[in-house]
């Protein structure tokens, strides 16, 4: 077992019409032993961007603190919030500059970029040295990633509204959690729209 799967986690991000969502479980473990049942892995970057970080628990907190520092510096210098697409590239370069001693994390970025009257979803995932994967539909990360792919490919459809997106991403995550022994113990779904961030808790199996 590698360090990136040592603490366990399953995470998925999905795009809808003028909305995006990230769903993650809350379990923190040392391999098969549960340490915490409510570990935070999804963080609000700004009003239009969310970042979820899968991987080693200590590096999750370290990398989030680094990105928070870089975002505050940008806002101080530029006097505005960073766009989601720009932030997704900043995550990539931040991981790549530590490539010789990488963070054992696999971040997911979900956000909305304004284009005229519409909002374009930004969905990206990365490996530990910053390779950026962005299909635009859905991305997965964590020890349950392979299990999430099948569910997402079956349930995903384009241009879903916030409520339908919540239902789809919840069912995808819950299906994967039932099959992954390193994830579970509850879940949170974050749905981001141009006007608000909706956070909902899911009940899952406690074993």
UniProtKB/TrEMBL annotation:
Keywords: Cytoplasm, Hydrolase, Nucleus, Protease, Proteasome, Threonine protease. GO terms for cellular component: cytoplasm; nucleus; proteasome core complex, beta-subunit complex. Pfam families: Proteasome. It is found in: Cytoplasm; Nucleus. One of its GO terms (biological process) is proteasome-mediated ubiquitin-dependent protein catabolic process. CDD domains: proteasome_beta_type_3. The keyword Ubl conjugation does not apply. InterPro entries: Ntn_hydrolases_N, Pept_T1A_subB, Proteasome_beta_3, Proteasome_bsu_CS, Proteasome_sua/b, Proteasome_suB-type. It comes from the Eukaryota. It catalyses: Cleavage of peptide bonds with very broad specificity. One of its GO terms (molecular function) is threonine-type endopeptidase activity. Belongs to the peptidase T1B family. Component of the proteasome, a multicatalytic proteinase complex which is characterized by its ability to cleave peptides with Arg, Phe, Tyr, Leu, and Glu adjacent to the leaving group at neutral or slightly basic pH. The proteasome has an ATP-dependent proteolytic activity. Component of the proteasome complex. This is Proteasome subunit beta. It comes from Strombidium rassoulzadegani. The lineage of its organism: Eukaryota, Sar, Alveolata, Ciliophora, Intramacronucleata.
């Amino acid at each position: 077992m590698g360090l990136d799967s040592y603490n366990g986690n399953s995470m998925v991000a999905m795009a809808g019409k003028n909305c995006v969502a990230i769903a993650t479980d809350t379990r923190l473990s040392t391999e098969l032993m549960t340490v915490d049942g409510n570990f935070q892995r999804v963080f609000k970057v700004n009003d239009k961007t969310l970042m979820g970080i899968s991987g080693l628990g200590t590096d999750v907190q370290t990398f989030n603190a680094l990105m928070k520092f870089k975002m505050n510096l940008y806002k101080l210098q530029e006097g505005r919030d960073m766009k989601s697409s720009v932030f997704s590239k900043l995550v990539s370069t931040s991981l790549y500059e530590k490539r010789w001693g990488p963070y054992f994390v696999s971040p997911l970025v979900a956000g909305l970029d304004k284009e005229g009257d519409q909002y374009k979803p930004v969905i990206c995932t990365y490996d530990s040295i910053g390779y950026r994967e962005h299909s635009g539909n859905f991305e997965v990360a964590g020890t349950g990633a392979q299990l999430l792919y099948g569910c997402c490919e079956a349930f995903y459809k384009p241009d879903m509204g916030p409520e339908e997106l919540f239902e789809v991403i919840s069912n995808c995550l819950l299906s994967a959690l039932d099959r992954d022994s390193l994830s579970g113990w509850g879940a949170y779904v974050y749905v981001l729209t141009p006007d608000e961030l909706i956070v909902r808790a899911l009940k899952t199996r406690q074993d």
